[in-house]
Design brief:
Radius of gyration: 20 Å
Helix content: over 70%
Structural class: mainly alpha
Number of strands: 0
Largest sheet: none
């Protein structure tokens, strides 16, 4: 799991290099960031999933689009016109939440449909498969960007207020623990999807994803209690001692 730290650091270095451009001309900066996001999306679609680790999962450029879209959304949230006029408008909130919800449902269905086509050996050719992979990533980035823009500005509507409830403070602390074990549970989910993929059962698709989320959160509790929390306390203790010296 340490492989992502190198990818994340490379993105951080690029963001630091681009920072002076933001001060010089923020519109040029947004254009450059958008170009980076699009280039990573093209590369994401170009490489197929046959060599999962080396060309699809670990490499930096297939992880770049969400990062650069995050930079772009942070910049847009800092624009006074967008923050004060566009985002607070009721029409934008309604359309944005609809786009975000449809994007989420679209990603879930497309991911399983892609697996269904692979299971049936009916993938739409080399270019079609690449386009399908890129479409999944593009839809994911669009709905996450809209969600970030709305929720980050405090205008997420009923869904935002629901997840802002105090009851979700505990699950929110389990995100890193869930990340630590997510790949193991992905293997379990893939092994469990044969029936769902074979029959393209849409109800089973969504309940399977829901079940994965439940298992991830339950497992994350144990990881948090046994690993993350003790190491966090140890780090705080060592840091406190080094400051005293």
């Amino acid at each position: 799991w340490l492989w992502y730290l190198s990818a994340d650091f490379q993105f951080f270095v690029i963001a630091v290099v681009l920072a002076p451009l933001y001060k010089a001309n923020r519109f040029v900066y947004m254009g450059v960031v958008s170009a980076f996001a699009f280039a990573c999306l093209v590369l994401f679609g170009y490489y197929e999933v046959y060599d999962l680790a080396k060309k699809y999962y670990y490499v930096t450029y297939t992880r770049g689009t969400p990062y650069f879209m995050g930079l772009l959304m942070a910049t847009l949230m800092n624009e006074s016109t967008i923050r004060r006029k566009l985002v607070p408008s009721f029409a934008f909130q309604v359309v944005g939440n609809i786009v975000a919800f449809c994007g989420f449902i679209g990603v879930v269905n497309l991911m399983w449909y892609n697996g269904y086509l692979a299971f049936k050996n009916e993938l739409p050719g080399e270019h079609g498969n690449r386009a399908l992979n890129a479409s999944i990533e593009a839809i994911f980035c669009i709905f996450m960007s809209v969600t970030t823009l709305l929720w980050g500005s405090g205008y997420g509507g009923i869904i935002f207020r629901f997840f802002s409830h105090a009851a979700f403070r505990v699950p929110s602390k389990l995100t890193f623990s869930a990340y630590i074990i997510h790949f193991i549970l992905l293997v379990v989910a893939i092994a469990n999807q044969s029936y769902v993929v074979e029959h393209l059962d849409r109800l089973a698709i969504h309940t399977s994803y829901g079940g994965c989320v439940v298992w991830i959160m339950i497992s994350a509790v144990f990881v948090h209690v046994l690993l993350e929390a003790p190491l966090t306390k140890l780090n705080a203790l060592l840091t406190r001692r080094s400051k005293k010296k």
